[in-house]
Amino acid sequence: MNTFTETTNTASTWGLYEQMRPQEIEAIQEKTPIAYLPWGAIEYHGNHNPTGLDSIKAFNLCKDLAEKNGGLVFPVVNLAANLIKSYPGVNFPKHSIEFSENLIRLVCEEYLEQLVAQGFKIVVLLSGHAGEPHLTILKTVAEEFNNKYPDKRFWALAEFDILPNDLLVANHSAIGETSLQLFYAPETVDLETLPKDRLITLELDAVSGDDPRLATIALGEQIVTSFVKNGSIIIEELKQKYL
Q: Mind listing the UniProt keywords for this protein, alphabetically (predicted)?
């Protein structure tokens, strides 16, 4: 598995919440009360990618942000609505675990309330799944919490929200997501399962976006580098205002 290697801010400390003892958590939180909440999905991503792609991507991007900016990374929330299994015009009923939009809203509300109670002042909610209205629900709840707790900041996003369109756009198991997966967990990707003699389609291959056969580790690294750079600028601005 590749890890992002840009020089980190050694003055910051970070950690994986569920792997730390209370005193370790509190030491980090006292210095940098930022929570990173990766929000994933168990969803069919074709034969060439794992069902946990959204979760793997969200967790690792959060981890890279935390290493750069400090804070605590929470376990992935593997709950998602609006998966490919219910997308009109396609027939991929297996390998996706789908939940209701109402449940997504409820879990998000309760999770953010718990993070408030735990004393976090900035919450970064990164959704690896961009199905709609799943993503909009998370962003809406975050904005409601910004209004409810004006002394704190809740930032919900998908990775492509802070990247130029010529680098990454919303896609499903296409070149962008596949390149990220190749960067973070190349052993889970098998491009040889994709057909070589025809166009890649949503209906046949569960791919929405540009051809995943062109995916590379180098492109994945470029996406990660740009994401961490742009995300860190925003987090630094939030630190100045809310910490």
A: Hydrolase, Metal-binding, Zinc
Q: In what order do the strands lie in the sheet with 71-73?
A: 14-16, 71-73, 34-39, 122-127, 153-157
Q: How many residues does the chain have?
A: 243
List the structure tokens of 196.
Answer: 């070589």
Q: Two tokens at 238?
A: 């939030």
Residue-range domain boundaries for the chain: 14-163+228-242
For residues 169 and 190, give the distance between their C-alpha atoms in angstroms, rounded to a whole number. Answer: 22
Does the reported pTM lie above 0.90? Answer: yes
CATH number belonging to domain 14-163+228-242: 3.40.50.10310
Cα separation, 106 vs 22, in Å, equals 27
Tokens for 140, please give them: 């809406």
